[in-house]
Amino acid sequence: MPPYIYRIFLVISVAILSCTIKNRKELVKKSKNEYLQGDVFFKDWLKDTLKVIESFKGEYKEKALKYEVAEDSLQLDILEGYQFVFNKAYKSPDKNIKYIIGLLKEYSEQPALPSIIRFTVHHTYYPSVTEGLKNEFVEELEDISVKSKDTLIEYGYIRGRLSNKYVTVKSSGKPKLHCEFVWENNKLLKKAVGD
Predict the structure, then answer these.
(1) Residues 100-153: pLDDT tens digits?
(2) Rounded to two decimals, what is the model's pTM?
(3) What gap in Å lies between CA 87 and CA 104, rounded to an integer?
(4) Whole domain around residue 119: which residue ranges?
(5) Number of domain units in the chain
């Protein structure tokens, strides 16, 4: 091959490479500006949302509402703490209370009457990286416990299901009993876990 073809090839390669680098820099700059713009939208949404949250405080007597805003104002955590006495006559319009009672029944963990049921619903909001959305949202149940006259049962919760429980019998002096909930072939198995 003649040497001038190598030079032409080299010049074309350098030109393509420099155009690619320039386009990449512009794309990164544009992406960064869009993300910053999303942060501004989120902060505006957050300001409006905090006003609404304040209006909901004290809606139900079973619920204590608390919220936390990250230092950079790019995350909002809302904690709904529930505590109520469960007995035969208990009825509540709150969907989270209905969900917990239904979940305990599904696992054949119907609380003894009367019992004190406690749990926290943790909502997390943060800016979305998806174009057109202001925020993303995650909801988790935490600190689920059922306390009766003689026992305290604490439940683990992962992705919509109870995962385990720790049972403490108050007067026995024995360590906590640990049990895992396992689903095999659509059948619930409760497996005791040894120390």
Answers:
(1) 999 999 999 999 999 999 999 999 998 888 877 778 889 999 999 999 999 999
(2) 0.72
(3) 14
(4) 3-193
(5) 1
